Amino acid sequence: MGQRQIAWSATGAVILLAAFVFQCVPASAQVRFPAVADDELARTKRSSIPSSDCTRTSVGFTPLNDLAGGAYQGYEAGLYLGGTNDPPLDYRWMGWAHCNAVQPLDQNGQPNANGRIVLLSIGMSNTTQEFSTFKSMADTDPEKNPQLTIVDGAQGGQDAQIIRNPNAQFWTVVDQRLAASGVSPAQVQTAWLKQAIGGENRLFPADALGLRDALRDIVDIMQTRYPNIRIIYFGSRVYAGYATTTLNPEPYAFQSGFAVKWLIDEHINSSGDGAWLAWGPYLWADGLVPRSDGLTWLCSDFQNDGTHPSTTGRQKVAGLLLNFFKTNETARLWFVRTSARKHKR
C-alpha cells in the first residue's frame, strides 16, 4: 500500500476534525503521580545498592515539558516547536489523519477486516526491558483492541549508532520476532522508538545533534522496511543521575530529549511525507524532585548500574505507555477495542 501524501482542503479538515471529536480523546489526559513520602526518601538515601550513587537524587535540570516557554543553554525547551507541549494544530490534523488510516491489514499489507495492526518497539536494552513489561500489561488489558499485535523488536546492546546501519543484524532479528508473532513487516503501522548513544561524551548541543541525526537514519530505515507505517512515537531517556558508569549518564540522558524534539520539529517544518512523528510519554524527571505531574525516579527504580530499570522502574514506564496508548488522541482509536471506546464517550 505504501505511504500516501495526504492532501488537505478546508472542507476535508473540518470533516476530519468533527469525526475525531467522537473517536479520540483530548491530548491533555495525564497520569498523576503521588508525592514521595518522607520515609521513602529516607529509604532511598539509605539504599545499599553498591554500584549506584543513591545520594545523587537531583541534577538540577528542569524536565523539557515543565520548561515549556523557557530555554536550556539558549535552546528552546518544551516538547514541540514553538516551546509548547502540544503539536501545532495543522500538524495535529495530520496526526489524526494518520491515526484514522491505521486499519487491519493482511500479510501482504492489504486492508482486511480479519487482518492485524502491529505496534512495534525499536531500541536498546532499556527499551526492550520497559516495552516487554508494557506488552505483558497491554496483552491482558480487556480494553486492548483484539486485532492489535504488540511486538518487542528492541534488543540489548543495540544503541543508535549500531542500528542506524540498514544492514545491521538488529533488523534481521526484528523480522524474526515479527514472524514469530505471526505478522509481517507489511502489517507494522505504529511504533515506539527509544534510543541513545552508548558512551556519549560530546558537549551539548553536539551530543543531541548526533543522536538526532542517528534517529533520522533509523526512521528512514523503518519507513523502508515497514512501508505501511503511519505513526512513530518517541520515548526519552529516564533519569540517569544515579548512574556510575559511562554508558549514558547525566547530563546526556536529559539532553537526549532535545534530539527527539529537534527531529520532530524538523518533520513539522517539512512537507510531512511519510510516517507522522510525535512524542509518546516524556519520561525524564529530575530524580526525587517531583515533576509537575508528580513523576519522580527513585534509586530503587534502577538496577545496580543506576542506568537500567529495575522491576519497579519497568513497571513505571510500562504504566505510562499503557495510559498513553489508551488515552492519546492519535493512539486510542486503533489501540482500544471498539466497545470500550463507545462505552467511554
Chain-wise SSE layout:
Layout: H1 10-23, H2 38-45, E1 71-72, E2 75-76, H3 89-101, E3 117-123, H4 125-139, E4 148-152, H5 160-163, H6 169-180, E5 188-194, H7 206-225, E6 231-234, H8 252-268, E7 276-279, H9 311-327, H10 332-335, H11 338-343
Parallel strand pairs: 3-4, 3-5, 5-6, 6-7
Antiparallel strand pairs: 1-2
Helix pairs in contact: 4-9, 7-8
Gist of the model:
By secondary structure, the chain is α/β, with parallel strands linked by helices. Helices cover 38% and strands 9% of the residues.
Query: Termini separation (Å)?
Result: 32 Å
Radius of gyration: 20 Å
The geometry reads as globular
Number of strands: 7
What is the tally of helical segments? 11
| Percent of residues in beta strands | 5-15%
CATH superfamily membership: SGNH hydrolase
Your description of this structure?
The protein has 345 residues and is an alpha/beta fold. The chain has one domain: Rossmann fold. 38% of the residues lie in helices and 9% in strands. The chain is built from 11 helices and 7 strands. The protein has helices at residues 10-23, 38-45, 89-101, 125-139, 160-163, 169-180, 206-225, 252-268, 311-327, 332-335, 338-343; strands spanning 71-72, 75-76, 117-123, 148-152, 188-194, 231-234, 276-279. The chain has a 5-stranded parallel β-sheet with strand order 4-3-5-6-7, with helices on both faces. Strands 1-2 form a two-stranded antiparallel sheet. Strand 3, helix 4 and strand 4 (148-152) form a beta-alpha-beta unit. Helix 4 packs across helix 9 and helix 7 packs across helix 8. The longest helix has 20 residues, at 206-225. It is globular, with a radius of gyration of 20 Å. It starts with 9 loop residues before the first helix and ends with a helix. Mean pLDDT is 88; it is low at 1-29 and 36-50.
